[in-house]
Amino acid sequence: MNTLKDKRILITGASSGIGKALACSLAAKGADLILSSRNLEKLRIVSDTIKSDPATKHEPYIVSCDMSKTDEIKNLFNECTRNQGKIDILINNAGIGVYGESDLTTMEDHKSIMEVNYFGAVQCMQEVLPQMMKRKEGMIVNICSVAALHGVPYLGAYGASKAALVALSQSMRAELSKFGISLLVVYPGYTETDFFTNEKKVGNAFRPKRPYTPVQKVANEIIRSIENNKKELVLTLEGKALAITRAFLPGLVRKVMKKMAYNLTV
Ligand SMILES: NC(=O)c1ccc[n+]([C@@H]2O[C@H](COP(=O)([O-])OP(=O)(O)OC[C@H]3O[C@@H](n4cnc5c(N)ncnc54)[C@H](OP(=O)(O)O)[C@@H]3O)[C@@H](O)[C@H]2O)c1
Fold first, then answer.
1. How many other CB atoms are there within 10 angstroms of residue 126's CB atom?
2. How far is CA 190 from CA 103, 145, 217, 230, 231, in A?
3. What pLDDT was estimated at residue 2?
4. If DSSP codes are grouped into helix, strand and coil, which group holds residue 122?
């Protein structure tokens, strides 16, 4: 089991939801955190929460960065290297959503979701890899989605951005193994966060009814997978069922998706 004590971990999208829960739990395990997102005020609140815990060993370092801006990502890594040195683990967590009919989703929406969910993560990996390759150690964690296992109605643009990240992660995992760098792909299912208030809505489709998985449970499972050097983590019962049935019963999956498409519109 990998110990996370004193490990320097960069989390993108650390100002809320899964990123914030990961930050608080990793800090409690003695990790040395770099927290990033666009909103410095929100990052400060996360950092203050962590610092108020008497068990905290390292004060988090916070950097504002918009994942759709290449110069800001470059600056994030320059600043990290200058002020913090090496990064042991990169968690590509920042993400946005678009929910609704794929044909009504504008080209601007298709492009902006790829900018953040895919190209932002790609650039972060390219920025961090030279130092990890030099040291011949490191870990990358890409937060993808159950919607990347198989296309899900009304999550076309979102699922495409996450599926692109899954495919790249699988290629990179193979390429990076000779450098001692591991890559974990996480497929969360519905998780209770602000994601659904922040996402762009298109058309009339609505989300499946709650309850969704509590965010702390998701963070705990991700951390356990990092500690155990796992390669893939599929969350939620529905996610696990989809991962199995898409291989063995593809016709059933198509039927369920078709029913879902009918049920989630007026
Ligand atoms: N919640 C779910 O059901 C669910 C399911 C599957 C996968 N996921 C994935 O889990 C990850 C975390 O989502 P969440 O549920 O925790 O949602 P969330 O609460 O909305 O958090 C999203 C995070 O991403 C950051 N972010 C958004 N756009 C950004 C940009 N352009 N540049 C930098 N940071 C940006 C936000 O911070 P700022 O606004 O401060 O920039 C925030 O910290 C995402 O990748 C999401 O796709 C979520």
1. 11
2. 23, 9, 12, 21, 21
3. 72
4. helix
Contact criterion met (CB below 8 Å) for 159 and 114: no
Task: Name the residue of 46, 96, 114 whose CB sits within 8 Å of the most ligand 1 atoms, as the mutation to test its pocket.
Answer: 96
Asked whether the beta carbons of 180 and 239 are under 8 A apart, the reply is no
Tens-place pLDDT, residues 119-128 = 999 999 999 9
pLDDT the model gives residue 82: 87
213 lines ligand 1 (CB under 6 A): no
- Measured in whole angstroms, how far is the alpha carbon of residue 29 from the centre of its chain? 20
Q: Whose CA is nearest to atom 41 of ligand 1?
A: 38
Which amino acid would we find at residue 84? Q
Q: How far apart are CA 72 and CA 32, in angstroms?
A: 22
- Which class would CATH give 8-263? alpha beta
The DSSP call for residue 17 is H
